Amino acid sequence: MKSNIALIGFMGTGKSAVGSELSRRLGTDLVEVDDLIAERAGKSIPEIFSEDGEAAFRKLEMEAVAEVSRREGVVISCGGGVVLDPKNVDRLKMSSVVVLLTAPVEEILHRADRDGGSRPLLNIPDREARVRELLTFRQPLYLRAADYIVDTSGLNPEEIAEAIIGCLMEES
Ligand code: S3P
């Protein structure tokens, strides 16, 4: 029985805001995988990337995913790169209905600008090229991992949470 909802998707697709709204509506805890990683590492995500490198971050991410996948009845908001390792996807899928949030590149870039330098992978001059390159590689991985896909274009977090709850009710 899958009692968790895991939100996946590229950076800037609204996973955190939607996760927060979804957990509020369902009366469950929200687990932010990135927050768990930062807590365990004792430093921020940008610090992990700059001091220890991406490989070290991915290792911590895998440990965090294994930990949250053992929980029950929670909403899990995943970092955008969680799908890169199939082990993460397998673990999430054992305990969670996996919902993919998508957004147009323009929206992703807008949110990355708004959030400043909090995303190390986008901290480069030509962000658009990087976003397109990462998306091209990751898109099939996101699609393969997803039980449901919600296009977030033009929707606010409340509406997206409602769409997700609609999908889940149809399933049950
Ligand atoms: C990453 C996404 C980030 C964070 C890290 C790496 C990625 O999370 O985990 O910077 O590889 O896409 P968000 O998707 O919440 O921004």
Helix-strand layout with pairing:
Elements: E1 4-8, H1 15-26, E2 29-32, H2 33-41, H3 45-52, H4 54-69, E3 74-77, H5 86-95, E4 96-102, H6 105-114, H7 127-145, E5 148-151, H8 157-171
Parallel strand pairs: 1-3, 1-4, 2-3, 4-5
Helix pairs in contact: 1-8, 2-4, 3-4, 4-5, 6-7
Bound molecules: shikimate-3-phosphate (S3P).
Describe what is shown at a glance.
With 172 residues, this protein is of the alpha/beta class. The chain has eight helices and five strands; from the N terminus they run E-H-E-H-H-H-E-H-E-H-H-E-H.
Please characterize this protein's 3D structure:
The radius of gyration is 15 Å and the shape is globular. The longest helix has 19 residues, at 127-145. The chain has a 5-stranded parallel beta sheet with strand order 2-3-1-4-5, with helices on both faces. It is built from 8 helices and 5 strands; from the N terminus they run βαβαααβαβααβα. The protein is of the alpha/beta class and 172 residues long. Helix 1 (15-26) packs across helix 8 (157-171), helix 2 packs across helix 4 and helix 6 (105-114) crosses helix 7 (127-145). It has helices at residues 15-26, 33-41, 45-52, 54-69, 86-95, 105-114, 127-145, 157-171; strands spanning 4-8, 29-32, 74-77, 96-102, 148-151. It binds shikimate-3-phosphate (S3P). Shikimate-3-phosphate is lined by residues 11, 15, 34, 45, 79-81, 119-121.
